[in-house]
Amino acid sequence: MQKVTSLPGDDAMPGWYHTSAARTPRPAHTGQKSARWAIVGAGLTGLAAARQLALNFPDDEVVLIEAQEVGFGSAGRNAGFAIDVPHDIGAKDYIGDVTTANLILRLNTLGQNYLRSIVAEHNIDCQLAEAGKYQAAVGAPGIAILEAYRSGLEKIGREAQMIDAQDLPEHIGTSYYKKALYIPGTVLVQPSALVKGLAETLPANVTLYENTPVTAVDYGDKITLVHEKGTITADKLLLTNNAFAAHFGFLQGRLLPTFLYGSLTRQLTPEEQARLGGKPVWGVIPAHPFGSTIRRTADNRILVRNSFGFHPDGRPRVKNLPRYRATHRKSFERRFPMLSEVDFEYTWSGAICLSQNHEGFFGQLAPNVYGALCCNGLGITRGTATGMLLADLIAGKRHELIDFLLASPGPDRTPPQPFLSIGVSSVLKWGQFRAGLEV
Ligand SMILES: Cc1cc2nc3c(=O)[nH]c(=O)nc-3n(C[C@H](O)[C@H](O)[C@H](O)COP(=O)(O)OP(=O)(O)OC[C@H]3O[C@@H](n4cnc5c(N)ncnc54)[C@H](O)[C@@H]3O)c2cc1C
Fold it and tell me: How many angstroms is it from 212 CA to the middle of ligand 1?
């Protein structure tokens, strides 16, 4: 019996969760149950895997188990950019090998289209906007990154428009940035509303249990998942719980649970909206990877996302939130001096799963155990696509994107503790220091 060594326990004030329509979570599991398929983790990856598995095996019951409430975890805490274009931070032009970049573009587009079609079919109210993204810079190093990325994007046939400082306020209100590259294609969503909607519209042969943290697993001919109030036995297990897979005994020493932080303002009044100006909905991604992501939402709030922390147990450190909120405030005031009286209503953290070599895991982990894990911070499109394709792989379907994912070497090994924590924390601190005014 493998004991699960750490359980999710996210902090209490994720803005997207609280500002989206409330739903009644599906009941937690109690007692004993058997099914052919069990999936652990109802984030974007697990929701896509469950939907697709249910379609591939319409006569089977698919059991989807989530430790918290759907929409409360990372899938509902992110910045809501469903991005299609690749962005390889290891390559000079941020695109690198064109064949690989084109495959990543197809993979992300598959995830995007899948979400677009479910949202349209079920009329999910998640503020989905075909808004594109502004990759924006304040200083010369950031501007050089934009120029390099534009030339990289051209190599994969994607045109992007460079916008100069004087024209930016009519797009995004603020005159803080010196240049931005507008890249069409990105879809903006209210992430918690999206995943709540995905959970509400699962096929009838999916049984979702929320607030059911799995505490131990017996791996064998059949898989038995143990939790506080019972057990679930399945023929096959799919792990879609991102960095928590390490606490189920897989990919140990390879996954890096890294925390990001977000704050969301109250709604702007009509007068404040007029003072701000610009388009009603937009999203800015920083040119520098350690800079701030900023959004103006369809319900007229401003999101600020920056700062990083590394917690190998995958659990937040609530005591640090005031410090990150203060950093968000500084970033907000630099960009929006015309909105100085607008307060943050929510501040939260959320985990992404990174790997040292930027590779994820896709495929079989052990007999009867499969995984789609570690989407390196791009969970909305990539998590959706890999969850869906994992269900196809298990159903015996093959195509080029599945082969591409299977050919990945997977996340590589990281140094042992305590060197790992010291090393990652130093990289994060140094990166944030170098980002300077891009934060
Ligand atoms: C602040 C922030 C901003 C981000 N911005 C973006 C963005 O703009 N675009 C983008 O694409 N991505 C973004 N991300 C990353 C994105 O949120 C993740 O990549 C995505 O959530 C991964 O989805 P997932 O389903 O693979 O994993 P998760 O969303 O982490 O879902 C895994 C689920 O497994 C559950 N689980 C774990 N252990 C157990 C257990 N023992 N029993 C039962 N359930 C368990 C967890 O509760 C969790 O709900 C951001 C993340 C954060 C935190």
Answer: 16
Distance CA 382, CA 112 (A): 9
Contact yes or no for 182/34 (Cβ under 8 A): no
CA-nearest residue for atom 33, ligand 1, is 41
Q: How confident is the model at residue 158 (pLDDT cuts 50, 70, 90)?
A: very high
Calculate how far, in angstroms, residue 43's C-alpha sits from the geometric centre of ligand 1: 6
**Four-point Cα dihedral 216, 217, 218, 219, nearest 10:** -150
Element housing 318 (H / E): none
CA of 103 to the centre of ligand 1 (A): 23
- Write out residues with Cβ below 6 Å of ligand 1: 4, 7-8, 40-46, 65-68, 73-75, 77-81, 213-214, 240-242, 244, 260, 262, 305, 350, 352, 375, 377-381, 383
> Are the CB atoms for 37 and 203 separated by under 8 Å?
no
* Per-residue pLDDT at 332 exceeds 90: yes
Fold assignment, 2-76+193-255+357-422: FAD/NAD(P)-binding domain (3.50.50)
Where in the chain are the domains?
2-76+193-255+357-422
Distance separating the N- and C-terminal Cα atoms of the chain: 45
pLDDT band at 427 (very low <50, low <70, confident <90, very high): confident
Instruction: Calculate the dihedral angle through the C-alpha atoms of 81, 86, 89, 92, rounding to the nearest 10 degrees.
Output: -140
Q: What is the pLDDT, as a whole number, of residue 432? A: 83
- Ligand 1 center to 42 CA (angstroms): 9
